[in-house]
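It would be a great kindness if you could assist me with a short task in structural biology. The matter concerns a single protein, recorded as an amino acid sequence and a row of backbone structure tokens. Could you please explain, in whatever detail you think fit, how the structure tokens follow from the sequence? Thank you for your consideration; the sequence and its tokens are set out here:
___
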Amino acid sequence: MEKLNEILARQLPHFKNIEPDCSISDALCRMSTYNTEYLIVTDKADNFLGLITEHDVASKALFLNKSLTDTRVIDILNTKLPFADAGDTLEQCMTVMKKHHVKFLPVFSNLEFKGIVSTDDILDEAVSHRSEIFD
């Protein structure tokens, strides 16, 4: 099975980033623009800080009646995430995601952030290799 770095190499070269001081409203607009369920939270030097997902917005802001324009990304972002190494296989990645009940997994290589692998990425990979899986 392929390594995560091979999958990340096929992804678009830009990341879907947002800074921590942006509002949740800004984050939702950006998610809509990028047609994605998550944003990578980075500081001004592009260091990885965490992720913000649509689920985070719903569970940590909307359900608690927080203002989407006054609440900042830093207030609800995920910082304590499991992660994978770029050299890990998809099987290893799936095991981590299942164990921690997450849909998005940050990938690092030598402490350098490389990107995000999602359950959709894994499903796409499985479908593209379906003959290997289903035969």
In short: The helical segments are 4-10, 24-34, 54-62, 73-76, 90-100, 119-128, 130-134. The two ends are 15 Å apart (CA to CA). The mean pLDDT is 88.
